[in-house]
Structures are given as C-alpha cells and as structure tokens.
C-alpha cells in the first residue's frame, strides 16, 4: 500500500499541470486566467524556484507569446474593477483585475488588444 501513494502523487501532480490557465483548479489556487509565466519566474526569485507554489503557478500560467491575441470587445465592470475581454461572438475569453492600473495603462492595453 505504501508504494501506491507516491505513484498516485506523481500522477496527481502531472494531471494538475495540464489544467491550464482559467481552470477551476487554478482558480481555487488563487491564479486568474490572465496569469503570465513571467510572474511565476519572478515569484520563484522570492520563494525559490523549486517551491510547490512556483510549480502550481507554472501549471496555471500563459506564455506571453500565446497571449498576444486581439479581442473584439472589452467590458469594464465595477468593484473590484475587472476588464472582460470578449471575442466577436461576445464570449469572455480573458478577464483582468485592473484595480491597480493607471488609466493610461488601461488605455494603452485596450489600443493594443482590441481589433480595429
């Protein structure tokens, strides 16, 4: 029986890494769908790159190259301020907490990410 436990943990860890950004597991760990992998790298500089937290973060992040997408529409919602990026069909594909963003950063982001 003791031999089965480590194998289960390894399989569980492998399955967790395939959950991906925006999954229920990632949300329950506190990682939002807009998490970039560069944030996980920076986190590793503070808590140690071999930390379980960094591993979980890496399983829930998006590489910046993959994230370079454009959206049809953006909706800014109240408290806390959240920006919902939507595709041409009106489906929310990304959500960003913009509470700490300066107005000019939001404007720059929207000019960069919205379809013309």
TrEMBL record:
Subcellular localization, as worded in the UniProt entry: Endoplasmic reticulum lumen
Location of the Selenoprotein F/M domain: 76-114
Annotated signal sequence range: 1-16
Gene Ontology molecular functions: oxidoreductase activity
Assigned keywords, A-Z: Endoplasmic reticulum, Selenocysteine, Signal
SUPFAM superfamilies assigned: Thioredoxin-like (SSF52833)
GO (cellular component) term, any one: endoplasmic reticulum lumen
InterPro entries from the UniProt entry: Sep15/SelM_sf, Sep15_SelM, Sep15_SelM_dom, Thioredoxin-like_sf
Gene3D superfamilies per UniProt: Sep15/SelM thioredoxin-like domain, active-site redox motif
Identification of the protein by name: Selenoprotein F
Provenance organism: Emiliania huxleyi (strain CCMP1516)
């Amino acid at each position: 029986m003791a031999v089965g436990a480590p194998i289960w943990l390894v399989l569980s860890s492998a399955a967790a890494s395939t959950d991906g950004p925006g999954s229920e597991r990632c949300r329950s760990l506190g990682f939002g769908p807009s998490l970039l992998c560069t944030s996980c790298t920076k986190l590793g500089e503070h808590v140690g790159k071999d930390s379980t937290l960094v591993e979980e973060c890496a399983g829930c992040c998006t590489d910046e190259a993959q994230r370079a997408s454009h959206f049809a529409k953006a909706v800014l919602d109240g408290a806390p301020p959240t920006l919902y990026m939507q595709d041409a069909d009106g489906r929310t594909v990304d959500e960003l907490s913009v509470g700490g963003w300066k107005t000019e950063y939001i404007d720059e982001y929207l000019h960069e990410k919205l379809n013309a």
